Amino acid sequence: MNDMYTHDRAVVLGASMAGLLAARVLSETFREVIVIERDELPTGSAHRRGVPQGRHIHGLMGRGQQILDELFPGFGADLVARGAPALDQSGDARLYLGGHRLQQASGGSTVISASRPLIESYVRERIRQLSGVELVDRHDAVGFTTAHGRVTGVEVIGRADGSAAETIAADLVVDATGRGSRTPRWLAALGYPLPAVDRISADIAYTTVVLRLRHDALGHDRAIIAPPAPGQTRGGGLAEIENGCHILTLMGILGDRPPATVNDILDYAKSLPVPDIYESVYDAEPMTDPVRIRFPSSERHRYEQLARYPDRLIVLGDALCSFNPIYGQGMSVAAMEALALREALAGGRIPSARQVMRALATAVDVPWQLAAGGDLAFDGVAGKRTTTVRLANAYIRRLHAAAVEDGRLTVAFMRVAGLVDPPTALFRPAIAARAFRQHRGMPSSKSRSTA
Ligand SMILES: Cc1cc2nc3c(=O)[nH]c(=O)nc-3n(C[C@H](O)[C@H](O)[C@H](O)COP(=O)(O)OP(=O)(O)OC[C@H]3O[C@@H](n4cnc5c(N)ncnc54)[C@H](O)[C@@H]3O)c2cc1C
Predict the structure, then answer these.
(1) Phi/psi zone of residue 98: left (φ > 0), alpha (ψ -120 to 50 degrees), beta?
(2) DSSP codes of every residue in 20-87
(3) From the alpha carbon of 182, which atom of ligand 1 is closest?
(4) Which residues line ligand 1 (CB under 6 A)?
(5) CB under 8 Å to 14, separation ≥6 — which residues?
(6) How far, in Å, CA of 88 to CA of 108, rounded?
(7) CA–CA distance, 113 with 110 (Å, rounded to integer)
(8) For the segment 83-121, what is each residue's pLDDT rounded down to a tens digit?
(9) Minimum-distance ligand 1 atom for the alpha carbon of 17
(10) CA atoms within 13 A on the CB side of 348
């Protein structure tokens, strides 16, 4: 028996990013961690049914990169060795935010730009190397077992024909089954109240295709990020990923829907408020068929507010909070939640589930405020615009406009958007003074500096 373990068995439901990252930290204090996954898990980098969003652009933010490097030393370097580019988010990406082209400046966060299957397969591979962690695929979690106010295990059914339900006992159960999590339904069936859900409906649609671009189509840049902005329901992202390919995701908000065929995609790209994406891709070779996805609303489940909640049950990842994907926060927040879980377990005993859910809610607070605030800048998005939200959005508009000529502001903004620095960093006197400095407006020529 190994003395470093303080608990026996944890069961994690879902082997996507949130489940794998939770398993990584649980492996430090649990003798055995069993991860149950409905899909068949591929050995390499491949799309899978349970993660349909994985076919679309998946930017890793600065904080996510930092945590993945910490949990899996060598993460960044290994992905570069597998053909993925490392890019400075404020220096190597052409950023069009709020209708302005921000001046590029190196010195922000360097992140790996890879396809989602490559990131996930790498993490899965590292998890498979951990002793005490077992990935059990082709098994569907169908419910919890409970006794005396605590969850005592999970019921699972194998996907093979003729499989019977079985119960796996656990000292801790972590639901990381994503947006479709059935925990609210299972809790209701056990007589627990449903969590309140904060919802912001921006009605997003994506169409994505992987392309091979002509040589030098992006010049020195490695990405163009031009999301929808207030007054512009269309946007797009084009980023270099592994093996010299580029992923193009066209976006529509508030009911605007990017089309499904390659020809129509080009027309849509041409209709974007900035010409750069179309000019980079018009003669590109498609490597995949276009795929589409809709994301009606961001949803945050307020488990931490429930008066009655069973012990030993943790809900995290998209099952807890799924964000408007345009902000690229999901994987990074899953990583931040994994650190919050690790910290909650650091005391050597399993804390109450309510305590952990409160810690996770704290981890989610800032990303949720950033995403909700961004969505509420669009007139067509319903929701309460508090004075703080209005002032913050007015300030961000000002900062974006000033960043057209000031790369220091681009770096500062991207570090906050990347969840590396707190939002208060943008209100420091040195940054605020730059944001309010008189500026000439958006330059037409390409600008690059090393602020
Ligand atoms: C269109 C889109 C684009 C996105 N872009 C970005 C981006 O640019 N950057 C970023 O960081 N994030 C992005 N995200 C979010 C990101 O994909 C998620 O936040 C991240 O994958 C973490 O999700 P998760 O692990 O909680 O859930 P998921 O990734 O949804 O995985 C849930 C897992 O649980 C399994 N499962 C479900 N039910 C069961 C069951 N009953 N039993 C067993 N297994 C089950 C599923 O098969 C799946 O493997 C995007 C999301 C969408 C929708």
Answers:
(1) left
(2) HHHHHHHTTTEEEEEEE-SSPPPSSS---TT-GGGGS--PPPHHHHHHHHHHSTTHHHHHHHTTPPEE
(3) 41
(4) 13-19, 36-39, 50-51, 53, 56-59, 140-141, 176-179, 206, 293, 295, 317-319, 325, 328-332, 334
(5) 35, 36, 37, 38, 50, 141, 175, 176, 177, 178, 317, 319
(6) 6
(7) 9
(8) 999 999 999 999 999 999 999 999 889 999 999 999 999
(9) 25
(10) 2
pLDDT of 154 higher than 90: yes
Which domains are delineated in the chain? 7-53+120-196+302-365 (3.50.50.60), 81-115+200-295 (3.30.9), 387-449 (no CATH)
Amino acid identity, residue 245? Answer: C
CA distance 337 to 348: 19
For residue range 228-251, list pLDDT tens digits in order. 999 999 999 999 999 999 999 999
- Sequence-separated (6 or more) residues with CB below 8 Å from residue 70: none
Question: Which residue, 87, 83, 13, is CA-closest to 44?
Answer: 83
Give the amino acid at 90. S
Ligand 1 center to 284 CA (angstroms): 29
DSSP 257: -
Pocket probe mutation, ligand 1, options 39, 51, 119, 182, max atoms within 8 Å of Cβ: 51
